[in-house]
Design a protein that fits this description.
The chain is of the alpha/beta class and 418 residues long. Helices cover 26% and strands 23% of the residues. An 8-stranded parallel β-sheet has the order 11-8-7-6-5-2-1-12. A 6-stranded antiparallel β-sheet has the order 13-14-15-20-17-18, with helices on one face. Strands 3-4 form a two-stranded antiparallel sheet. It binds alpha-D-galactopyranose (GLA). Residues 40, 75-76, 123-125, 152, 184, 207 line the site of alpha-D-galactopyranose.
Length: 418
Amino acid sequence: MKSLKSVSLACAVLALSTASSHAQKWEHLADTPQMGWSTWNRFQGNISEDIIRGIADAMVESGLRDAGYTYINIDDCWHGERNADGFMQADPAKFPNGIAAVADYVHSRGLKLGIYSDAGTHTCGNMPGSLGHEYQDAIQYARWGVDYLKYDWCNTRDINPRGAYRLISDALWAAGRPIFLSMCEWGDSYPWRWASEVGHSWRTTPDIWCCFDSVRVFDGGAYSQFGVMQCIQFNDTLRRYAGPGYWNDPDMLEVGNGMSESEDRAHFTMWCMMASPLILGNDLRTMSEATRNIILNREMIAVDQDSLGVQGLHLCDRNGLQFWFKPLTCGRWAFTILNPTTTDITYELNWQDFNFTDEEVSRLGTGFDSTVYTVYNLWSHKAEGKTSLKNKTDRKVTVPGHDVVSWLLTPKAAKSRK
Ligand code: GLA
């Protein structure tokens, strides 16, 4: 018979191995997709403490913070060198007071601070990576008061992605401060299949660039960047993998960085329809009124942030238009018609053509043959009648090129939340 000592030792070993095989991540940081701003799309490596402070101020004064944009994320190229003990320091020319001072300022404005690192030897901008320093870096971020880590995937030859992201997730857990983990390995190892217990969001695409519909290729195809339409097309296939706590990330927003107003509107709408992270990428200090109106459309933001947490469905294509539906709480639906072409298209809408049940994710159905919905235009902010139970053309809709028409449909019996 085994002694009590050897039995309890076996139990302890079992408990330990069970504990270490179960990933632990900070919960409830991503019940809805994260919202914020990042340095990368607009500033790349030309960043500084002054820019971060200015953006934090603009975030508050423009009303963006109160609309839900919380994180101010410092992307690549903030780095100086590791000190004698191996702890990473910020570039003293860009951040003369260090990251902790920036975190304090950002927190004093009611916002949160994000930082960036990479699982490899070096970041994509050739700064020191976290390889071999994962626990040390996590401790440093926690000490500084960081709230969000974007973890990139450059210079990771021979590293196993599952192991690498699990390692940093464990390190963030051990460091003891709740830090959001935004995984950025561009979908190469299908993170949607394995990362829901490791990170809070994962990139599904290569980098976005400020263009509605084309791929930009570098180094003979070694590296490419996607336009808005390519990001949508790819992300579209992954809706069953997203939900409260873990989101598909088709990359940061390019609204306000040079596309036309209608393209910016379509881009923003589709990110909301896909329950994507809303990480702004424009200069908030100098943005136009048109940009402000797009990113501050609270009714559209509510579509993204709906607590049901279902990524929208690309139901069908007709007459060159794409028809997207996103189920929302209280029996409501967001319904968007996207025009991916450059010419205006008019469509005769019969609600009965869109009776369907979302079998793949929510199991909810539109039931246009039995439920009447009020129709509210999410961009003109006007009521536009109601759906019809009859099998007939109900209305003619013109969707301009590279633009959307987007409606909130509320069942007539249910109380509107507004
Ligand atoms: C990669 C990421 C980008 C950005 C840059 C920084 O390309 O995908 O989002 O963080 O690195 O160098």
